[in-house]
Amino acid sequence: MMHTRPIRFTRFGFFYILFSIGVGAAAINTGNNLLYLILGILLGFIIISGFLSDSGLWGITTEWDALGSFYAGQKALLICRVRKGWFPGVAVTVESQWRGLPSVRSFIPWVAARESASVQTELVPKQRGYLTLDRCVCSTRFPFGLFQKSHTWQMQERWIVYPRVERLPSALIESAGETLSTVFSSRQGLGSVPYVLRDYRDGDALRQVQWKISAKRQRMIVKETEEEANRGDLYVLDAWPGDLSPEAMETFISFIASLIFTAHTNRRPVGLSVPERFFPPENSREQLHRIFKFLALVDPRQGGATTAPPKPFRANMHHMDIRSLWASYAVKS
Fold this sequence. Notes:
The chain is elongated. It contains 7 helices and 15 strands. It starts with 6 loop residues before the first strand and ends with a helix. The protein is an alpha+beta fold and 333 residues long. The model is unreliable at 177-187 (pLDDT under 50). It folds into 3 domains: 1-162, Sandwich (Immunoglobulin-like), CATH 2.60.40; 164-181 and 231-333, no CATH class; 182-229, no CATH class.
């Protein structure tokens, strides 16, 4: 939906109009033909300015695309593609108005006729949920800077903002829950049993280097371990804590997301069991985004389930109690 196209005098345009009125008054009082000629030129510039500025906005449209995923408290990047119709756009300012956030302005010097130009927009979402673009305003002062004309669109486009995440220390995860499976799959992977020793290759993590063996052999040696045969890490929350303030609840949800993120970066299958949903352990980026999307939109205080129903747990899953981990995290913090 597009609003009417408002027009606003610039400071220079305001004095230009006053000067034109003064020249017109002098021409009427004196009858001087030169003053009438100057008045005609001044009025002609006003007409030309109005036509060119309006032409620079006719047929203009915007398209918005996200660059990557959005996380609360982190910089979000979007690409705005400005398309133009039969007349080029010159000196166009694009102002995006976001719900709950300050407006962001971007300047595009030139958009060719029937082509597009792109500009990058940066902002920082304050909280998880939806990032909503309410309105988009395209304006220009082309060609003489006398007036500023603008077109406004109601956008109502939105993107999901994931909870704030951070890499948690491995010691925190290992401090609660069951021990890792001792059953192995006889193939290379993440685990605790040595699988093979080999020469160092570019990209190997330094924590895998066996320094004593490397010193004996006079070259860097890396130890690879055998993959565990369990079905991954399942983080379990039987009931949402009811004694937390809204701010503390947001911190708690971000903590859950950080647990999932840390397990995923360790390349382990990860799952989540909460009162509303059950995500079986899976080692994929799609699984990570499914869980993050759920955590971005969940509202434990809006009449949802407070206690988790029985889930099809398997004995070879590594069960991790989120409340116990949260208590350990709160104490260490």
